[in-house]
Amino acid sequence: MRVERIIQASIFDIFAGHEIGRELKAMSRWLDGHPMLVALVADDLRRHGVRETGRRGLPAESALRCGLLKQHRQLSYEELAFHLEDSSSFRAFARLPLSWTPKKSVLHKTISAIRAETWEGDQSNRAGQRARGKAGARQDGAVGQHGHRRPNA
């Protein structure tokens, strides 16, 4: 079973005062103002054949946020899994449920289920670029001026 959004933020969602922490906090606020992006990702994850019964999957909002972290910080799935376990700022940004530390295989399976059209589509591409605050992935998936690719590339 998968939920789209975590409605209430945890009291433990604390961003570091470091430049990266401040950047992630700003990106998070921007994403909060654009819930349609979560809906697009939720549709992709449903399309991927996940049933509404059984173990809870990574929420669609967390999948989107983890994908953006992977892309923005240019991380492998293994590095992303480490940072999500190690960094309170990354956990706060990803909106992971308490005590969840997704493994690289879960991150890969979930993030790669997000269709290229969702990542590169006109609406999500512009939204992702604004969230990152710099030019990123182009419509054709090629590397943008800052070396970003879509997360499952």
Describe the structure.
- The chain is mainly alpha-helical.
- It has one domain.
- It is 54% helix and 0% strand.
- It is built from 8 helices and no strands.
- It has helices at 19-32, 36-47, 60-73, 77-86, 88-94, 104-112, 116-120, 122-132.
- Helix 2 crosses helix 3 (60-73) and helix 4 (77-86) packs across helix 6.
- The longest helix has 14 residues, at 19-32.
- It is globular.
- The protein starts with 18 loop residues before the first helix and ends in a 21-residue tail after the last helix.
Order of SSEs: HHHHHHHH
Percent of residues in beta strands = under 5%
The major sheet is characterized as: none
The amount of helix comes to 40-55%
**Average pLDDT rating:** 74
What is the total domain count?
A: 1
Derived structural class: mainly alpha
User: Would you identify the regions where 5 or more consecutive residues have pLDDT less than 50?
Assistant: 134-149
- Counting H and I runs of at least 4 residues, what is the number of helices? 8
Calculate Rg over CA atoms.
14 Å
Strand element count: 0
**Gap from first CA to last CA:** 26 Å
The best one-word shape is globular
